[in-house]
Amino acid sequence: MPLFLSQPLLRRFFFFSSPFSPPRRLHLAALSSSPASMPSGDSGDGIAKKGRLRGLVFDMDGTLTVPVIDFGAMYKAVLGEEGYAAYRAASASGGGVDILHHIEAWPPPAQQRAYEIIARFERQGLDRLQIMPGALELCRYLDSRQIRRGLITRNVKSAVDIFHQRFGMEFIPALSREFRPYKPDPAPLLHICSIWGVPPSQVMMIGDSLRDDVVCGKRAGAFTCLLDETGRYGSPHSYTDDTRPDFKVSSLSQVLSLLETQFDLMPPPQTT
Fold first, then answer.
1. Does residue 246 carry a catalytic annotation?
2. pLDDT tens by residue, 61-80
3. What is the pTM of this model?
4. Across residues 208-226, what is the average pLDDT?
5. Catalytic: which of 59, 208, 228, 246?
6. Residue 61 annotated among the catalytic residues of the structure
7. Record: fold of 7-66+131-265
8. Among 114, 84, 101, 92, which Cα is nearest to 184's?
9. Do the beta carbons of residue 250 and residue 231 sit within 8 Å?
10. Domain ranges of the chain
11. At residue 247, what are phi and psi to the nearest 5 degrees?
């Protein structure tokens, strides 16, 4: 189990004691079938500046792997008919319900039952686990450029282990549900940055959830990239400041183009 650094401690490390400069924020580049052409800044002579990037941190379910879990059925099984109806109503109004945080407020017996239901759905999903198109090619590219890759998932460690074994890919560190607090809290991402010795401003968080992945990355001060394969999030102009990613792509293949056009990819810093 990796050493846990509390969120306040991590924030002090990076934002008060660190010599690293704060991240340069980008305007959103919505990508379709072509690489991003949006500049991340201007040097004053009309030449766009590129962001520096030393590491990428990925979500797993729906990002590195094809979505296979029926979350609607899982939520209904955990929350019951009335609870699920309330969840749907809250989601429709924009409030949403974080089921893991919701369960933590329950009495221990109810918590145990809920976690067992979630684990059952996750095990069923593992039987149908598939790698997301473009994931292997992207990882090979990152390896060729010596760019670190990590993983943050709200799934359990056993699922991460199976993912590593089945597809021959390894993400270091790989933080699962056993690491608290969960996304969208920035602590998991800040923890990875501390292990790498890299400031969040030189890391990108990539995931398929605005609420979990993008918010986690933005709160940590990292670049953020939303993977929206089906267009379910609609127009970027409808996003709130809290959930507006720096980039939006419809496939992992577009991430490779994004890295080549928008960033200076830097090898990890030398350690002594």
1. no
2. 999 999 877 778 888 888 88
3. 0.72
4. 96
5. 59
6. yes
7. Rossmann fold (3.40.50)
8. 101
9. yes
10. 7-66+131-265, 71-127
11. -140, 155
